[in-house]
Amino acid sequence: MVDVERAAEAGRRASSRVSEEGAGWSCSQIGTFQALRPSRTGFSWLRPAVLWRSRNEILAQIFGDPSNEVRARWIMARRAQGADAGFRIRPPVGDGYSFLIVGDTGEGDASQYAVVPGLLKIGAETSFAVIASDVIYPTGSGNEYPDKFFRPYKDYPAPIYAIPGNHDWYDGLGGFMRVFCDAPALEARAAGFSLSPAGLRGLLWKKPEPIDEARLAAARALRARPEQRAAQPAPYWVIELPGLLLVGIDTGIRGTLDREQGEWLRETSRADPRPKILITGKPIYDRNTYHPCPIDGGGTVDDIVRDPACNYVAAIGGDTHNYQRYPVDVGGRVIQYVVSGGGGAFMHATHTIPRVDVGGVHEDDFRCYPLRGDSLSFYSKLYRRRLRMRWLYLTPDQGLVLMSRQIGNTPPRRPGTGEAPTVDGDPQTPLDGQDGEGRDGGRNGGVASAGQPGSPPAQGPVKITARMKWAARVLGGWPMPFRLPVGRTFHRWFSELSDWDTPPFFKSFLHLSVESGVLRVRCFAATGCLAQEIQPPVEDEFTIQL
């Protein structure tokens, strides 16, 4: 039995905000996750076959996303099969309970399995887990669930629910519905050729793969204990808990809701007064940008989240493969908007996130993992090797100071020492709710100046050179002197094509607990190093009064 409170206390002292070791930079021994992997073959987005199988993403952008139409057929079929009319799930929990949320899991390689030991340790006493987006890469095929779902989580003792991500939809949601809803495949519909966008899309559209039922049955045996079994009613649902509702929505490929799901979301949100957490396949706030998620017929998902009558306290989304948190003031109450997509897929860079100001959120109140400086350092190391350009490499200290200079706050680790910084000479704990990348951004009299971009970093042994500045520019951490969208290009494409199978991985998952009317959310990290398996670091923590 694991005492999560004690583990969290130790995890705060072992995070990347305290030391380079906590970030996984001094990885003297790789974790035990290697023994869990079915093979040493890594998953790579550089393979032409993988990119071709994932073509539905591009086709949906060009010719339109059919997800809403197909989802309507799935919902009609589920209702005919007797699914709960409100798509309700009622897991057995007591007054005090806890659960996990892990996003974007299913690459089936080292980065996914590296999360498993810490998840099993911290989640040993939880009542259930939720996978938020992209259960299976690259196309959600039911034939890939054995090694990318059942095997890694075979020892998790409780039920696992999920909402689909865009990659799960590349298979027409067939694999997802078969595994999580125990639903048979939809009947194929013949489509005649036409020059309409839908007709042209159908010429190249990847069709669902027939599922090997014998192999799937053998995989289900890995999670066959009664306490592990669960069948959810649909790809979107509501989990009813004492004092709290979890509302999961299906955003398809392009991040929209069909009219029927939108009406269900409005009715579900307004009918029950309990506080609610939205779990969505696409985050509403991400990389200092706002994505309210449109609903067919009018309105947005965030309109519902912001409605005081609906009583949402948080919205947690996957799809982006890192951790971010934006506490947004909405009419005098704070809603926590969280990105939690670090459950196993390649890491999306955080050093390309500009100084935060979206939704009225101050940079000092923003959190992310990995730290921007660690992200910059890691990608510099990766591309130095791949491009054979030694001058690109930036040490973790250099990365921290460069990003501090660009963002305008103080590094969370004192460069050159690996220690937490001080404010007015007083050491600060790594989870003092100050800023996302550093310590107080200058607002509380710390070593940073007025907290504006370009403020000098904390004093330390790192001197910024012209070589370091150009390396940061090439890697998207600093702006180019001419207009070139390096940051967005790096985040969207370079990150995806830069998957790796050696630590540190900078993965994460959420542990949520409810006790005495208080919801506590902790972001635990997984680096792939043995030290962080034994003691999973806590990279962020916040509470919400219910």
Quick rundown:
This is Calcineurin-like phosphoesterase domain-containing protein. With 546 residues, the protein is α/β, with parallel strands linked by helices.
Q: How are the SSEs ordered, and which strands pair?
A:
Blueprint: H1 4-12, H2 20-23, H3 48-53, H4 56-63, H5 67-80, E1 88-89, E2 97-103, H6 110-113, H7 116-122, E3 128-132, H8 145-150, E4 160-163, H9 174-180, H10 197-204, H11 213-220, E5 237-241, E6 244-249, H12 259-271, E7 276-280, E8 285-286, E9 289-290, H13 301-306, E10 312-317, E11 323-330, E12 333-340, E13 367-369, H14 372-387, H15 396-407, E14 422-423, E15 426-427, H16 466-474, H17 486-494, E16 507-515, E17 518-526, H18 530-534, E18 538-545
Structural class: alpha/beta
Count of DSSP H/I helices: 18
Do you know the CATH architecture of the largest domain?
Answer: 4-Layer Sandwich
The Cα radius of gyration reads 23 Å
Span of the ends, CA to CA? 27 Å
- What number of structural domains do the residues give? 2
CATH topology label of the largest domain: Purple Acid Phosphatase, chain A, domain 2
The proportion of residues forming helix, as a percent range, comes to 25-40%
- The low-confidence parts are 419-436, 438-459
Report the sheet-strand fraction: 15-25%
- Please count the beta strands (DSSP E, at least 2 residues each): 18
Query: What is the approximate shape?
Result: globular
Query: What is the CATH homologous superfamily assignment of the largest domain?
Result: Metallo-dependent phosphatases
The averaged pLDDT comes out at 87
- Spatial ordering of strands, largest sheet: 1-5-6-7-10-12-11-13
CATH top level of the largest domain is Alpha Beta
